[in-house]
Design goal:
mainly alpha, two-stranded antiparallel sheet
Length: 173
C-alpha cells in the first residue's frame, strides 16, 4: 500500500472525470459520434462500456487515502497502453476517420498520456519509479511512432494517410 499524495488523488480524479464523460458520450451517443468522426459505431460503444468500468476503478482509487501499489501501476500502464494503442489505431488502417475523428483520437491519446505521465511522475516521487518502467517504455514507443510517422529516413515528410499530421504540418508551414 502507498499513501496517496494529493497530487496523485487529483490526477486520478481528473482521469475518472475525463473517462466518465467519454464513457457516457461513447456509450449513449455512439451513433452520433460515429457519423461525426467517421469511426465504427461498435468501436465507440464498446469503448464507452469499457470506460464505464475503468471510471469506476479510477474514481474509487481517487477516493482512497491509501492505495494498493499494483492498482496504481495498472492505471499508469493502462493509460500508457491506451495512448500507444490510440496512435497505432490511426496508423493501422483498421479505421478511416475524417480529420475530426483523427483530431479526437489524437486529443484523447494526448490527454490519456498526460494522466499516465502525472501518475508515473508521482510514482517516481514516491520512490517506486523502477516499477513504472513499462509505462516509460510505452511513452518511448509513442515518441518513436510519432517521429516515424512524420519523417522518412532522408528527412522528407511522409504521407501516411494521417490527416492530423498533415494538417499540423501545413499549419506550421
Amino acid at each position: 500500500m502507498i499513501d496517496a499524495s494529493t497530487f496523485l488523488r487529483r490526477a486520478l480524479l481528473a482521469d475518472a472525470i475525463f473517462s466518465g464523460v467519454a464513457a457516457l458520450g461513447f456509450t449513449f451517443g455512439a451513433s452520433a459520434f460515429a457519423s461525426l468522426f467517421n469511426l465504427p459505431e461498435a468501436l465507440l460503444r464498446e469503448t464507452g462500456l469499457f470506460l464505464i468500468a475503468y471510471t469506476a476503478l479510477v474514481g474509487w482509487l481517487a477516493s482512497r487515502a491509501s492505495m494498493a501499489r499494483p492498482l496504481v501501476l495498472l492505471v499508469v500502464v493502462g493509460n500508457a497502453a491506451w495512448t500507444v494503442g490510440s496512435i497505432a489505431l490511426l496508423f493501422s488502417g483498421a479505421v478511416s476517420p475524417n480529420i475530426g475523428g483523427e483530431l479526437m483520437v489524437v486529443a484523447q491519446a494526448i490527454a490519456t498520456g498526460v494522466f499516465a505521465g502525472c501518475n508515473m511522475w508521482d510514482c517516481g516521487r514516491a520512490g517506486v519509479w523502477w516499477r513504472c518502467e513499462t509505462a516509460a517504455l510505452a511513452f518511448s514507443v509513442v515518441a518513436r511512432l510519432d517521429r516515424a510517422a512524420r519523417y522518412s529516413r532522408d528527412g522528407r515528410r511522409m504521407r501516411m494517410g494521417c490527416g492530423v499530421l498533415d494538417a499540423l504540418g501545413q499549419a506550421g508551414a
